[in-house]
Amino acid sequence: MPDLITLADIHAAQARIAGTAVRTPLVRLSRARLRMAGFAEFAENTPDIYLKDEAAQPIGSFKLRGAYNKIAQLSAEQLQRGVITYSSGNHAQGVAFAARARGAKAVIVMPSNAPQLKVEATKALGAEIVTVGPASLERKQKAEELETLHGYTMVPPYDDEAVITGQATCGLEIFEQLPNAGLVLAPVSGGGLLSGVASGIKLAAQAAGHVAPKIWGCEPELAADAKESFDTRTLVEWPAAKTTRTLADGLRTQSLGERNFRHILQFVDGIVTVTEDEIRTALRLILGATALVAEPSGAVTLATILFHAHELPKADKVVAVLSGGNLDPALRAELEAETKAINS
Known about the structure:
alpha/beta, Rossmann fold, 6-stranded mixed beta sheet, 4-stranded parallel beta sheet, 16 helices, globular, TrpB-like_PALP
């Protein structure tokens, strides 16, 4: 059974990815902006909200942190053989970007329902795409088959120590930027981001002798396998027919990774689910009240603050991780039309 990652591991990853992944900003979502954007009801009832804008990464997502941390540690022989992964989009781009930076071939197994925006972006980074059906287990099995056949090195999307450690640099940054935050929210699918953010913050706070913020995960109620696993303390798997219903394409994974689950049980305080309508409202708010762009998977954290504060611990300062900003143009047009209709 692998050990939990350490603060030394995270600091090493932070140094390793510097210059490739960027230190992303915390953007305060002011009450004045909420009122100006037509969301006055939220302005009166929310705490101070800070958005951790992972869309500022070169690929528009936090996934670059873990992918580069993994690939940067491969030998010259492994890089020469190439790398492979399975992903619905953002991790695909992370691996493609990191592989290109290290001079390695990248093969990505993607589902047939992956957003075209993310497929094209992955191709543009030079990766070879292999398409399978919509189930997350199907793409994992295909990637493992090709790994064995061609000698590629697997770069798992979440269930890997180096990937978790890379994502943990996001949590370390949050602690360095706002050490007095009372609550930090992160999206959860396979668990790479949530396990990393929670580990980074809790370990950094412990080392500094500081009271750590509470860390909660957020996911769609249509793909709530992580909440069920957390609540029952038993790793469960949902069928693809259920998880693929959500608009949040990056959160359709059918189960948490085993390593991620161990870190989540150790460092995470709770998990909340949100509805599809709540995700859409959060997306419209981000577009209307900020200069940021979030995809549905990233907006689940803000949706949680807006609609589920009663389920969360009280906090004066809350950080919501916006995990990515690769918003489909057609969906953006829909959201903007909805906002015009509501305000007309």
